[in-house]
Write a structure and sequence with these properties.
- With 268 residues, this protein is mainly beta.
- It contains one helix and 16 strands.
- The strands form three sheets. It has an eleven-stranded mixed sheet with strand order 3-4-6-7-8-9-10-11-12-13-14, with no helix packed on it. Strands 2-1-5 form a three-stranded antiparallel sheet, with no helix packed on it.
- Strand 1 and strand 2 form a beta hairpin.
Length: 268
Amino acid sequence: MVIILDYVVVNGKKIKTSIVSVSGPLGRVKDTYSKLIITRSKVKNLTDIEDIKGLSELIHLKELWLTRNSIEEIKGLSQLINLETLYMGFNKIGKVSRLEDLVNLKHLSLDFNNLEKIENLDNLSILKHLNLSNNRIQKIEGLKNLSKLRILNLSNNEITHIENLEFMTNLIVLDLSHNNISEIEGLDALTKLKTLILSHNQISETKGFDNLVELTDLLIDHNQISEVKGLKNLYKLRCLDFRRNPAEDNYKKSSYIGDRIFINDKFP
């Protein structure tokens, strides 16, 4: 099935074209499609899409991929009120904006962009998966209304503190790897968390895990930890990645498999 967009803008020029890759039942295109993918424009001789027109009529669209283009601003999506999944990774977006009408959104990926702040997500109250990795975000904020969030990926940013997560009571996966975090804090409300990734930071002490009773996977490799402690409440913990820490050689472990350390005896 083919959707005819009004035009795409490539290298500053408007080009009327057809974009192919739609899944859904047969019938009238504007009424029955469910998925549209526009990534590295498949149109011959076009490389990067900078702007897109014609999406406003696709009001039944549930999944939209706009990855690996040159989009600098989020716009033209306000009519897509049934959208559940939006991928806009690998673009040049500098600000989260114009998403307030997408109240049915459950999965949002804005990874590999130029974002410096988490903002304008208040209306996305049923969002379950948020990926803002590989940006320039310095602070965890703007997540107060996202209490249904289950997966949060903020890896590869410039975050220095773990904070403002007290409303994330349904979170099961948190990825804060490759940041500038020096202290484990602000995790007390995450009682359903199963996977915590803090690899490649500047953490020197293992603490702040007391309430994480459901945690099964803890990745704290490539930090500055000299002593492992504070894990005694993690009864369900089955996997600890502790490589490249000062205490690695001295820490007793029952087995080492691949990139992860599997521990079966008691934790300190």
